[in-house]
Amino acid sequence: PPSSPSLSPGTSIPPSPRCWHRGISREPGARWTEPGCRSCMCQEGRVLCDAVSCSIPCSHPLPAPAGGCCPTCTGCLHEGVARAEGDVFSPSDGNCTICVCLAGNVSCLSPECPPGSCPSPSPSDCCSCHPEKCSFRGHTYAHGARFSLDGDGCTTCVCQGGEVECSFAPCPVLDCPQHQRHLRPGQCCSSCREPPAPAGCFLDDNGVEFPVGQLWSPGDPCELCICQADGSVSCKRTECLETCPYPIRIPGQCCPDCSAGCTYMGRVFSNNETFPSELDPCLSCICLVR
């Protein structure tokens, strides 16, 4: 094995330096707890601190005592109430349930009642009550039994301690007017009737209803509308392809007429008709339809 380094005669190992922390001298290797639950140690003249790590080996520890950092298992905290070690108690809604505090752990024991009985809030006899049967409309029902009133499935009833409680099945909220609602045979809730098929197209602006297949112009002679089978209105515009410099525009007609004559300065002239120019009286014009 390699030999360990040997010290020469007359030499010694220098001692580890002490630590100064907040005006206090600490021995090398010393450990202490600072305020705020920080664990510190003096190592090689430096102070090393870290948060105190708590190991909690119980399920219901008590909060840390005054001046301490970690919760304690010498007692129990159950439902906000501090319990001493070995304390036996009943929860607020335990119904004869018994709990005990041992080393910070809470163990509870509930009574087991035989069939035909039920837990009682009285600690003296936790299984003393016996559920009563229900007699309803000539029938007898056991405690907890559920059944439908009149067998229609619209009303659910339950037997509770000799009393029958019934409730109606909730119905959805309908978004149709009252006159369109109806109750079908074998159903518990009303439903909306299907709206009748449209017989035509109804226009809200002027109150006129057009039959299916009806063609009309809504005011613009270049726009033509048709009433479709589903009650909707489909409109298309007419594009005028024939053009000429001086067309005749006929009221109520979409496209100007280039075959009937000419329109010049607000006057209408027939084909091959001559007339003086409005701009120069010495010029003569003629209407030619091409």
TrEMBL record:
* Name of this protein: VWCE protein
Primary residence:
secreted
Q: Per the record's keyword annotation, is Glycoprotein included, yes or no?
A: yes
In the UniProt record, which is one GO cellular component term?
cytoplasm
Q: Which GO terms describe its biological process?
A: cellular response to virus
In terms of domain of life, where is this protein from? Eukaryota
Origin organism lineage = Eukaryota, Metazoa, Chordata, Craniata, Vertebrata
What PANTHER family does the record tag this protein with? VON WILLEBRAND FACTOR C AND EGF DOMAIN-CONTAINING PROTEIN
This protein's record includes keyword Signal: yes
Q: Where are the transmembrane segments?
A: none
